[in-house]
Amino acid sequence: MKKSNTKSMGVKTTTSWKNALKRDWQLYLLLLIPLILVFVFSYGAYPGLRMAFMDYKPAKGYAGSKWVGFGTFQKIFKDADFIRALRNSIVFNISDLLVGFPMPIILALILNELRFQKFKKVSQTILYLPHFLSWAIIGSVALTMFKPASGLVNIALMNAGFIQEGIPFLNEKWHWAVTYLLIGVWQGMGWGSILYLAAITGINGELYEAAMIDGANRWQRMWHITLPGIRSTIVTLLIMNLGRVMGSNLERLTALENTQVKDFQYQLAVYIYNKGLGTGKFSMATAVGLFQSLIGLFLVLISDRIAKKLGEDGLL
Predict the structure, then answer these.
(1) Which of 6, 11, 52, 90 is the most buried (most CB within 10 A)?
(2) Residues 72-102: pLDDT tens digits?
(3) Which burial class, exposed, middle or buried, applies to 71 when counting CB atoms under 10 A from its CB (0-12, 13-18, 19+)?
(4) How deeply is 30 buried, as exposed, middle or buried, from its count of CB atoms within 10 A (0-12, 13-18, 19+)?
(5) How far apart are CA 220 and CA 226, in angstroms?
(6) CB 229 within 8 Å of CB 112
């Protein structure tokens, strides 16, 4: 008896660029706008990086300025202000990562478990709003609320009997460090939870139904279904955040600065601003910016490689 071949043959279809462009020309047009902005403001600035290897003088321009090679880098690595700014940036960015990275995940898990939809939507809106406030507004509100004598927070704590005198939240460097980190968490955790909530919606609902039939409670469903379901998103965002360990936010730092906390507030963003625009040492500022970018790229590549070794998809 002759055996019949029951294997189905797949039909491969291809679409030419001409047909794709004709069909989706509106989408390609919309994509063209951000591409142009990236090329103009990102790639278009690359020729200016040669300033890091020159003793750049604005009056002489690139043609008249002296080429010094890695001399500028040797100078900044010996600069005590750079060492202090580098140390502060690394400490605060790692602290930001340890404190701030888990919070959007926890918030997304909590929001996902809410069953009253109207309350959930209102909560999400309230939590997203701080992301859209400028650091100038956040800084002015924080300085008003955390004043040692007349700030709302200290008055509430003293009236409740928790403290006898005002806490210098933003006027003493150690208190400032904790306040600085917590304000950053408050400002970013609502917006950061959006990606995790989107990833949670992609989890198959049948998994939850099967777990409920087996008697799993909410905590067990969250731990064994929700968290593994968004693990790839967590790894991807962690890799991206590791690339920012060398960075710092100038707006955030200047909004919360004062003379009493200069030891901790002086980070790489402040160093670059002071050297570049403050004293006109554009070569040093460019060299520090290039150093930050290269270290960030190195951290992303290393963390991506480690993630792939551990069985994750990684970023690249």
Answers:
(1) 52
(2) 999 999 999 999 999 999 999 999 999 999 9
(3) middle
(4) exposed
(5) 9
(6) no
